[in-house]
Amino acid sequence: AQAVWLKQPPALPRLSGSDFPSAGVMEPSPAGQEPTSRLGGETPCLAPQHMLFFVHGMGGTEVDWDLWVEVAGEILSGWRLRPVTTLAEGARFMKNGVDALADQAAVEIVAAVREEQAQAGGSARRLMLHFIGHSMGGLIARGALPQVFRELGDDTCELGHYISLSTPHLGVQASWTSGHFWKNFSALTGIFSQQCVQLAVSDRGEDGRPPYLIALSESEGEFLEVLSRFRTRTCVSLVRGDPLISMCSGLMSPDLAFEPPKWESGCGWRFEFRSGFDASSSFERALNERGADFSGSSSRHSVQGKASAPSPESELADDEDSSPQTSSTSAPESSSTTPESEQRRQSRCARRGAWSQSADGSCRFPGSMLSALNSLPWRRIAVSMTHTPTAKNAHVFLIGKGTEQHM
After folding, report:
1. How many Cα atoms occupy the beta-carbon half-sphere of 270 within 13 Å?
2. 43: number of CA atoms within 13 Å, CB side?
């Protein structure tokens, strides 16, 4: 069947505790008492209080998350939804560096957690923190977490889900022979601000410290250690059309490639690729129920038919009390990549000081970053969108910022 573009926002699957026996079934409780969960027939225990933080990117504000907050509020009953509100001024183009913004975000997150703890009084109910970051916001969230746990203590909170939307995990540099080479000039803006220099992995840390994005990804560093505590990590990116962030950087998958698109008229979107999802996850089940064929490793994977499609938001309600992912994964396989060749390529580019580039030249990065980040398991989703004649700002498509995409 020919893939059909979805013309309207998706109707998200409705979730309940009974859908996820491994996640704990919510038990009814008398008024004024804490809700409990039951795990596999064990004695009921207090269910965690979930806090979901939304972190916007460059040039954004907390208002960017209005649609996500609205939809998530319908799905995630009882969760505290907290768009970060203090970053707008510093996150303006060529203003504060990513590291400074991460420190600022950490202060707000710590304050929000302490406020939640104060409201809970002496409750034994634990907190579980989740993060969704758009663009630079995904890096800000990763950078903020060590400071959050230093101030709150490692035993105060657990980490649930981390989701990045069009986040440049591998930086913004590109091959000089590609059409994206103009982003390399970000490295020359250090006289004005460290923001773009850090995104280009070209900053020089004090006292011999590595560039900030490399520090975020060091295999023995505190940033990657805290990132590893999340039960799941999901990265979502546009296949093409994003003028700022390449799919290869957003998905940390430099060898993932798709066939050139055929001309599509009108407006719509579809899933092209996904990997790393357990067969029992709500996302996987919802796609299967709608007849979507994501099997195999062909270069084109699309939601089939006109049925409404699920969203990564539905994954937030999945596996709330399940064990964290522990197995390592490499970048998703493309039609031209085998596990052996991928392993050899990552080994070569991981040599100290070695840089590599994606198959299409849209991303150039230190190989050590790719190897360290892919030492953790990731869920990956690639999305295509079309807008005739062109989208005003495809970079904000994944957050549903209608005023800048005219969808």
Report:
1. 21
2. 0
Residue 369 near residue 170, CB atoms below 8 Å? yes
Question: What length does the chain have?
Answer: 407
**How does pLDDT run across 244-260, given as a tens digit for each residue?**
899 999 999 988 887 76
Residue in the structure block whose two tokens are 């979805």: 6
What does the block give as tokens for 164? 């990045």
pTM of the model: 0.77
More confident residue, 292 or 267: 267
**Spatial separation of the C-alpha atoms in residues 332 and 342, rounded to whole Å:** 9
pLDDT value for 188: 76
- Tokens matching residue 168: 């440049």
- Which residues, other chains included, contact 41 with Cβ-Cβ below 8 Å and sequence gap of 6+? none
| Alpha-helix residue ranges (DSSP H) falling in 76-200 | 98-120, 136-152, 195-199
According to the model, what pLDDT value does residue 231 have? 95
Amino acid sitting at position 368: S
Cα–Cα distance, 67 to 65 (Å, whole number): 6
The tokens 């190897």 sit on which residue? 371
CA dihedral 12, 164, 330, 261 (to 10 degrees): 70
